[in-house]
Fold this protein.
Amino acid sequence: MTVAPWPIAELHVHIEGTLETELLVTLARRNNVPLPSYNPDELRELYRFTDLQSFLDIYYANLAVLRTEDDFYDLAMAYLVRAAGAGVRRAEIFFDPQTHLANGIPLSVVFGGLTRALRDARRDLGISADLILCFLRHLGGAAALETLDAAVPFLDQFIGVGLDSAEVGFPPSLFTEVFARAGALGLHRVAHAGEEGGPDYVQEALDLLGAERIDHGIRAIEDPRLVQVLRDRRIPLTVCPFSNVSLRATPTLAEHPLPALIEAGLLVTISSDDPAYFGGYVDDNLTGIEREFGLDPHQMATLARNSFLAAFVPEAEKRRYIAAVDEHLEGLLRLISGA
Ligand code: ADE
Ligand code: ZN
């Protein structure tokens, strides 16, 4: 028996991390970009990571295949089709403009392709999606400021800013000015923190960047006072279990701090991060944790509701999505009881 996936908001996915090896090969051939292999399975075999940096090295190298507006369109559309099948009703999608700028691709090309895909997906798939522009922390605060300035002409094409890439050694404090400027422009603010970095990075992201959500945030569990702040302020954590296992932020899924984060009363959501690299999309992550931790339908419904509560959409829209979660839960309970 196949059961429909939970209606969900995907709040932590990097569009560049959805580049499946099949599309990677297609784009490499289209643009004459060399790859270590042209066999998608062989390329996937190379995805054995020891930490965040070992992943980032391959991930950034692969992005050399993205050259034209159509490449960005095809990347985003492939994700959105897959996401719609995973139950995603709302997606807030990260992208890394600095990587593409460094490859010689103008922002107009990046925005052109991504925005067109988002618009078509809304029309054809009924999926609501927006972009969040991420700064690469390894390039520092001045480069982030330059990037934000360059993106101002495209302000109507993204809803917020984020902070990603290598974490340790690049604390949120380096990005105080660019986040303040983004806030003054009316943009939402989120930041990766507490993935490999300690709970102090999470605290800084809240205090210095005004982060409204924390991406990952799993190491917050090490600091009870921080946990209390996150709980009291209802700060969402966008947790990506398969990513954390793949990058060895946690040794195994069984040892993932997810149950402790839930138990602590935090507003946890589940996401896929870079699904083409970490073995699954958001629906796979959800079924993975359901099985691993024996979560019941009520606990799964809470995670699905959380995702919409944490989304950057108007309250009325949240209520409609949450009604869909409640309906899904009722259907599931009826199925289980055989009624
Ligand atoms: N960029 C893409 N995926 C990332 C992750 N998991 N952490 C930091 N930066 C990233
Ligand atoms: Zn991420």
Remarks:
- The chain has 16 helices and eight strands.
- Residues 315-337 form the longest helix (23 residues).
- The pocket of zinc ion (ligand 2) is lined by residues 12, 14, 164, 192, 215, 273 (CB under 6 Å).
- The longest strand covers residues 128-136.
